[in-house]
Amino acid sequence: MVEERTRLHQRRDGGTSEAKKEERETTLQLWQRKWENTQEVAQWKKIGKSIDDNCIYCGKRDTVEHTVLDCKRWQAERSQLKSQVGKEMQSVTNMINLMVEHSGIWKEVHRYIRDVMSKKEKETRQRN
Length: 128
What we know:
Helices cover 70% and strands 0% of the residues. The longest helix has 25 residues, at 103-127. Helix 5 (75-85) runs antiparallel to helix 7 (103-127). It has two domains: 1-37, no CATH class; 51-127, no CATH class. The model has no long low-confidence stretch (mean pLDDT 82). It is mainly α. It is globular and about 50 Å long.
């Protein structure tokens, strides 16, 4: 988020909604690239394990957005998050906006993502 705000500040049109939308999209693309290029994936490829782009739970394309917002495996955790923050996370952009606006939501979303990713990593290792 700091990088996104820095990029907005450096733009001549940084205050416009279009500029904000473009920089948010850049942030999401960078986040997705980071997700796809984790050390774990590199290590798995190195030892010859099969890595594909499909979710181990439902077979849909495994992206940040899919795991955090859509995958049925994490429905209970998402429901708990919704009850804790009083809002449903409808998109990554919506989630980020809520996190920036409310520090309490930031903490709960951070906890949710940390817990989901930790469980997913553990379950992925158990399958392999």
